[in-house]
Each structure stands twice: as structure tokens, then as C-alpha cells.
Design the sequence.
């Protein structure tokens, strides 16, 4: 009798998972490391020495999640191939439950549709020994008070797009008096966009800063944090959180709704959770 697979899970939010994975796809050919645990699935993508991104698909997002490994299995896979394979299962206008199994008999990732109406779709994705994930993206706050702001995702994307010049960098400055975030781009010209907390409270939802700080980031990598934000996030008018950590490490966090809650879930302070959420995080090193 063959050993039980490390993971058997079932999900119905096909488009949501495609959107989450696409949000960290900033170039055509990218390799991803997939890590499995009892808590869920983490997909890690990076451009060494510059940027790392993670997609967290927590076990609560799945209709069924059965994890049987003693450790945390990891495997490497082409991100583009993974996105394209899951996209095949998307059926417009009606839900389609997908089963995911790892590993198969040859260490492959298996996907199959569970919809009895019509033909069954089946996919095998070849995996490989994973690359080593960089350990130097551990985010630490620069002081006792976090340096952070939360801004509407559409506004953040628009600011970064407006400041982009080929090969340029963007300076992000936080200042407490008056409380504001200043984006400054230099390239073929010089452009500055300021978001004052009191003047733009509809866009700048939250702000935390006790002392002025500024760092510069390569434009192409900063743009990667917003270039593929799903339309649903922009349409829902969600906020993205931007934090500056020790040595200027930038963390950009997006929340992606994956549909209505499958089960009634109450958090630690007694609030009922309205929807299933995928967490997307980018870590960006300064110039």
C-alpha cells in the first residue's frame, strides 16, 4: 500500500487563487517555492538580493484540508505553469471544486476537478528540488513605534505608476509633522507626490511615524508590489499597508477576498470573520 500524500485539499475559489498568485508574478519566467504545513500553503517568489514576495493561503480558505506530514515539505515549481494550470479549472458563472494532492507517485503536484457535471479536468505539474529561500528578508521594526501607513490600493498603484521612469528609483519619505507620506521619483525629470494624512484621509487610512525617515527603492521592484494587484482589490477599495523596517526594508501587504466564509469563524476577540482572506506580502530592500 502506497503512503498517504502529505497534503490533500479541496478549494472552490479558483479565480481567487489565480489572482493571488498572479499578484506576485512580476516577470515572465519565475520560479516559486511552495511550502506546506498544517496552517496552510505559502508560495514564495524572489529576485535575489532585491525583492521577495509571499502568498499565504491559510487552511481556512479550503473546503477540505488534510495535512499528514511530520515536517514542512517544500517543492519548486514554475510560477507561470502553476498559474496557467489552475486557470484551466476556472468555469465562468459557476463554482468548480478542485482537489489538490501532493506528492503524486513521481513527486508531482496533482489537480483535478470534482464537478460531476461534464468532463473531469485533470492536471499533473512536474515539481523540482526547491531553491534555497533567502533568509535575509526577515522584517524587523526600526524602533518601538512602527513606521507604517495604510493607503487605498488603487491610489498606491497610481502613485507608483505615475513616478516610473526606466531605470529610475523612488524615494519614500515619512514625516510626523505634518503627518504625511512623500513619494519622489527621479529619472528623465523630477516628480513628487505628497499624501497628507489630514488632507487625504479618504486615501491615507492610517499613519504611524514618530520621526522623519526616507529610503530609496528601485522603481521596477517597487512597481512589482502593485503592478498585478487584482481588479477585485481595486474595485473593493481595499487598503494596502506599507511598513518601513530596520535598515530600510520595505514591507507591502495586500488582502485579497476569496469569497464568503465557508464555516462560521470567530476570532480571538469574538468578531465573526466576514470572508476568507489571502494575504500577499512583498519585502523590498532599499538601494
Sequence:
Amino acid at each position: 500500500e502506497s503512503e498517504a500524500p502529505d497534503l490533500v485539499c479541496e478549494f472552490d475559489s479558483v479565480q481567487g487563487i489565480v489572482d493571488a498568485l498572479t499578484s506576485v508574478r512580476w516577470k515572465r519566467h519565475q520560479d516559486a517555492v511552495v511550502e506546506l504545513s498544517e496552517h496552510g500553503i505559502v508560495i514564495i517568489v524572489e529576485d535575489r538580493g532585491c525583492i521577495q514576495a509571499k502568498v499565504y493561503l491559510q487552511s481556512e480558505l479550503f473546503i477540505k484540508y488534510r495535512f499528514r506530514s511530520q515536517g514542512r515539505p517544500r517543492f519548486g515549481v514554475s510560477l507561470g505553469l502553476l498559474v496557467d494550470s489552475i486557470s484551466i479549472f476556472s468555469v465562468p458563472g459557476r463554482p468548480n471544486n478542485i482537489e489538490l494532492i501532493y506528492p503524486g507517485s513521481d513527486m508531482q503536484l496533482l489537480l483535478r476537478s470534482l464537478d460531476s457535471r461534464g468532463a473531469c479536468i485533470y492536471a499533473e505539474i512536474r515539481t523540482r528540488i526547491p531553491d534555497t529561500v533567502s533568509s535575509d528578508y526577515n522584517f524587523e521594526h526600526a524602533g518601538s513605534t512602527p513606521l507604517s501607513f495604510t493607503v487605498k490600493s488603487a491610489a498606491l498603484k497610481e502613485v507608483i505608476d505615475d513616478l516610473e521612469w526606466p531605470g529610475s528609483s523612488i524615494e519614500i519619505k515619512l514625516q510626523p509633522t505634518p503627518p504625511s507620506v512623500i513619494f519622489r521619483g527621479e529619472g528623465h525629470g523630477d516628480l513628487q507626490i505628497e499624501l497628507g494624512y489630514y488632507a487625504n484621509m479618504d486615501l491615507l487610512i492610517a499613519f504611524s511615524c514618530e520621526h522623519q525617515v526616507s529610503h530609496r527603492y528601485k522603481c521596477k521592484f517597487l512597481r512589482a508590489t502593485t503592478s498585478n494587484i487584482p481588479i477585485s482589490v481595486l474595485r473593493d477599495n481595499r487598503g494596502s499597508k506599507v511598513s518601513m523596517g530596520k535598515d530600510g526594508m520595505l514591507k507591502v501587504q495586500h488582502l485579497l477576498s476569496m469569497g464568503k466564509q465557508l464555516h462560521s469563524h470567530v476570532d480571538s476577540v469574538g468578531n465573526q470573520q466576514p470572508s476568507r482572506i489571502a494575504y500577499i506580502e512583498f519585502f523590498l530592500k532599499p538601494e
In short: The chain has two domains: 7-125, 147-248. Residues 108 and 124 are 6 Å apart (CA to CA). The mean pLDDT is 88.
